[in-house]
Amino acid sequence: MADAAETVKKTVETATAQVKAQTETVKAQAEKMQAAGAKAAREAMDKSIASITELNAEGQRNLEAVVASASAAQKGAEALSAQSVAYAKKSWEDGVAATQSLAQARSVQELIELQTTFAKSAMETYLSEANKMADTLTASVKDSFKPINERVTASVERFQAAR
Length: 163
Hints:
- By secondary structure, the chain is an all-alpha fold.
- The chain has one domain.
- It is 96% helix and 0% strand.
- Helix 1 runs antiparallel to helix 2 (108-162).
- It is rod-shaped.
């Protein structure tokens, strides 16, 4: 019976040693899996944070482009307004001068010549001012769309590079 007890004792010790070894192996594998999972979660979080940061930066650049565009449009509107006021003032002054000149005409023929000269001058001035305003408007629109066009181009290039 002593041999049987000894055999049972050795069997229990062997089984206990095997269970401990398997427990250590399972524990090591679990720790390895946990570390890999934590690493993967950390990498995913880092990528998410980087993406959000880049998205915020992209939004900031887009906002800056819109502000620059609005600023350019405002400058263009101010330039057009100044040109309009200057033209209106000059037109008024020229009209007053023409009226005074017409009032001093000594004959109907002189009146018609003065009126024709004034009409021709007024039309030439008007066409010149219209061309200047068209040039100013064209430049203003071009300047207003430039920042936004640059952002669109940058975004398209970025998306194409990401393919």
